[in-house]
Amino acid sequence: MTDSTGSTPDIEISRRRLLGTVGAAGATGLALGATGGALVQSALSDSPAGSPGSAGSLASLGATRVAFHGEHQAGITDPLQAKGHVLAFDLAPGAGRKEAAALLRRWSDTARRLMAGETAPTADSGIALDAGPSSLTLTFGFGHSFFDRTGLTARRPAALDPLPDFSSDRLDPQRSNGDLWVQIGADDALVAFHALRAVQKDAGEAARVRWQMNGFNRSPGATASPMTARNLMGQVDGTANPRPKDPDFDKRIFVPGAGPGPAEHSWMAGGSYAVVRRIRMLLDDWDKQSLAQQEQVIGRTKATGAPLTGGDEKTALALDKLGPDGKPVIPSNAHARISAPAQNGGAAMLRRPFSYHDGIGPDGTPDAGLLFICWQADPLRGFVPVQRKLDRGDALSEFIRHESSGLYAVPPGPGDGEYVGQRLLEG
Questions:
Q1: By the 8 A CB rule, do 74 and 137 touch?
Q2: Could you list the active site residues?
Q3: Would you say the C-alpha torsion 35, 299, 368, 114 has a positive or negative sign?
Q4: How many angstroms from the chain centroid is the CA of residue 169?
């Protein structure tokens, strides 16, 4: 968990979303409203009102559509959605490259249709018949073990090597890793669940669910004006996220089209690597701390997210500023200080998480926290160096527990007529 784990990439429209939302109506049919830290857009449709996939009678929340095809997969730079599911599959015994390719074809066809607000291609459950696409995104990735199972070991990138062990890890192997990874997000819970059921049914006999987790974020429109999200500790969380308008954003987040790696890894050009961590927050212990103590742990004010050194949320940390006692105003072990890119050789990653709550345990404490998902061009230059520093002395470590982990190669977005991962599986 880092200082910027909960942010939307930025309150700006991406090319993917612009193309997916405008559709045949053109730019004059686009209404923009930034609410709740997410971009809410309305779209017009050629379909008659009331027909499947029609956006004519829908509010902007339901009508928002994200394009399936594109340079990058959906669900990476798109704004945070209100509801999410993340899950991993293992290929069934005896299933290999052929079965994996057929599965990715099915998943891609389903994702394309559902993201357009249409019904699933086979045996639709009817769960989402009354809703539009509601910003639905489906994102697919490959785990380290996938390449052994499919005979593609030579095409496995070095960046997918297993993450190192961290002293604070308390990982459950049954809820970690997996051959295939799927991320689902939507601004409507039924739309998200509909996609989850469709993905599960599409797996058929080819793959079995290894683990599945459910998450949520603040709903679009819940705040009077756009703002960075808060996590379950109540902290403004995501201030330092890189933004798509940054000149080096693509370099940090996406694998370059031509790089130093071997040609057999070129299928990842335009893709990204997702680190997924289930981070339990020890909320009862956290809530016992005074406001001043919580702010010292984070290094930011709780009300606004501004650095303890002054200014507003976007003000840079004045890490050299000393207080009247001669000590740093932002403590040496404060989460914001340790995770700051300036303290980690410029290491950066795009955090796009969901919060989760899985009930109250037998001891009366909530099983709640963060489904941490971060994106980077190379995890050895993004997640790993930052987490190593946090592992050595982050004051927040006393109040969190890393319970599961996974690293996945997420290939680029499919072109027209392609399925996700086709360049790997058929290249």
A1: yes
A2: 237
A3: positive
A4: 21
C-alpha to C-alpha distance for 427 and 424, rounded to whole angstroms: 5
Lookup: tokens for 175: 């809820």
The residue to which tokens 């987040």 are assigned: 253
- 3 state DSSP class of 336: helix
| 55 vs 192: CA distance, rounded Å | 18
Q: Are 16 and 78 in contact (CB under 8 A)?
A: yes
Instruction: Return the DSSP state at 137.
Output: E
Tokens of 302: 């709780």
* Dist. CA 103–CA 74, nearest whole Å: 19
> Which residues neighbour 238 within 8 Å (Cβ) at sequence distance 6 or greater?
4, 5, 6, 7, 8, 228, 229, 351
Tens of pLDDT along the chain (427 residues)? 545 444 444 434 344 544 444 333 333 332 333 333 333 333 323 333 334 444 457 888 999 999 999 999 999 999 999 999 999 999 999 999 999 999 999 999 999 999 999 999 988 999 999 999 999 999 999 999 999 999 999 999 999 999 999 998 999 999 999 999 999 999 999 999 999 999 999 999 999 999 999 999 999 989 888 788 899 999 998 888 999 999 999 999 999 986 556 666 889 999 999 999 999 999 999 999 999 999 999 999 999 999 999 999 999 999 999 999 999 999 999 999 999 988 888 888 999 999 999 999 999 999 999 999 999 999 999 999 999 999 999 999 999 999 999 999 999 999 999 999 999 999 8
Q: Residue 209 contacts by C-beta under 8 Å, 6 or more apart in sequence?
A: 87, 88, 89, 200, 203
Structure token pair of residue 24:
């045949």
The token pair at 149 is 């199972």
